[in-house]
Amino acid sequence: MKINVEMLNTTKMKHQHYPCMCEATGLILFLCRIFGIVPIVCGEPTLHGQKCKFKISQTFKVYGHALQASYSVYAIVLPGIRIWCGPTISNTRFWYVMTIGQVVGDFNAICCMIASNIHAEKLCQLFENLATLNGSVTEMRNLKKSIRNFVCYVTVCYIITFISYVYVAYLRSFAVNQVFDDYCDWPDYPFAVFVRGISLIFPGVQHLMVTFLCLAINSKFKHLTEKTDLTVAVSTNMALHTKDVPHSLGQLASDHKQISYCLNELNVCCGLQLLVTTSSVLYTTIYSLYRYSLSSRESVFSNTNERMHYVVGACYRLGHLLHYMYLGRQIHFWYQAPLNVLQNSDLLNLPYKTQQQVQTLMLQWLGKSGNLSACEVINMGPWLLAPIVGNVITYLLVALQFENGSQQLANITAPMILEAFL
């Protein structure tokens, strides 16, 4: 009988500590290290049963700095050449939108790499804090499964988008000998288009890391909601005294404070990337729709064969933004869930001492709102959808009217000039 008890305790311990945070973050952190986003690795495997440890890998830190420096030089040189040369005969009509579009996209990729590395220590501590917080084993397993499925989904979307860039580079290769005869045209070479397709992976990996952290924080809030509901139910039924409740109200307040701290750290570490990504997606969406609407006019930089490329690019970037909105909405909902449990509880059936504790806890949580924030400039959520759609439509209409007006002015001015000379 003693052996059976020990076996049961051993089995219970295994279920308690599986899967650990390191197992859930393994794939995400591997991609972050490979693409220079953040050089975090899991610590000693022997500590996984007690507390997952994370540390900064000096090897991948040097590798990440080298990757950032090389891509930064590339991203600065090519736009610098374009700005130095100015509009050329082959790209006069598209020079401004192409230049700004490339600069915005490159800046977004560079920001995702550099900003995350600056906050590498804080991110490492954030992973450890999330690992030490109480959580459900089922939720951790669901988190691991959700991340694996989401990585596969993002990978498929990126491959489709990258294929569209390869296709455009293939089309541009036929025009190399005809148009790209000067170093001023280097930013439009097929190789440059190919590299821009590769650079999309940096914001994509950043997106995976933010997604994992948001889902982990949501799982902690969800577990806290279940504990709050259990605490109120036990107190209401008077099965135990308040001090004997499995999860006391004081512990609930402490857990909520720790999870909220993790959310604030997430906003500090990833706020700048979210802000730059939102601005980049807003402009690149307008840029892609603008180029798509003009792609029926045949030229080297705009033709009907490239129309699908702009649709795929706009959908890929908008997908990132829409998912950030969804994550923001989920964080806001689960942040308020423990408070909603207390508000919906029947306080009259609780002991007087418990009533005072619940009211105190409600006052602590009331008025606070958890959000996925971009440098406290904007809060990610579905409430951004209407302003973004309005801005895209407004600026797209203005750009198209300006383009049509310029074309009509050219058609009117040319005959007048000819008539004056004749």
Task: Identify the notable features of this structure and list them briefly.
two-stranded antiparallel ribbon; 4 strands; mainly alpha; 422 residues; disordered C terminus
Describe this structure in words.
Gustatory receptor which mediates acceptance or avoidance behavior, depending on its substrates. This protein is mostly helical. The chain has one domain (20-405). Helix content is 74%, strand content 2%. The protein has 12 helices and 4 strands, in the order ααββαααααααααββα. It has helices at 2-16, 21-34, 58-85, 95-118, 120-132, 137-173, 190-199, 201-237, 249-294, 307-343, 352-365, 385-421, and strands at 40-42, 54-56, 373-374, 378-379. 33% of the residues are buried. Residues 1-18, 239-246 and 405-422 have low confidence and may be disordered.
SSE layout and pairings?
Blueprint: H1 2-16, H2 21-34, E1 40-42, E2 54-56, H3 58-85, H4 95-118, H5 120-132, H6 137-173, H7 190-199, H8 201-237, H9 249-294, H10 307-343, H11 352-365, E3 373-374, E4 378-379, H12 385-421
H/E element string? HHEEHHHHHHHHHEEH
Estimated radius of gyration: 27 Å
Count the helices. How many? 12
Span between termini: 113 Å
The helix-and-strand class reads mainly alpha
Q: Judging from the principal axes of the Cα atoms, what is the shape?
A: elongated
Question: What proportion of the residues form beta strands (DSSP E)?
Answer: under 5%
The largest sheet, given as strand count, sense and whether it forms a barrel, is:
2 strands, antiparallel
Taken together, the total number of domains comes to 1
The level of helicity is over 70%
Total count of strands: 4
Roughly what is the average pLDDT, rounded to an integer?
76
- Point out poorly predicted stretches: 1-18, 239-246, 405-422
Q: Give the strand order, joined by hyphens, for the main sheet.
A: 1-2
Main location: membrane
Family: Belongs to the insect chemoreceptor superfamily. Gustatory receptor (GR) family.
Subcellular location: Cell membrane
Protein name: Gustatory receptor
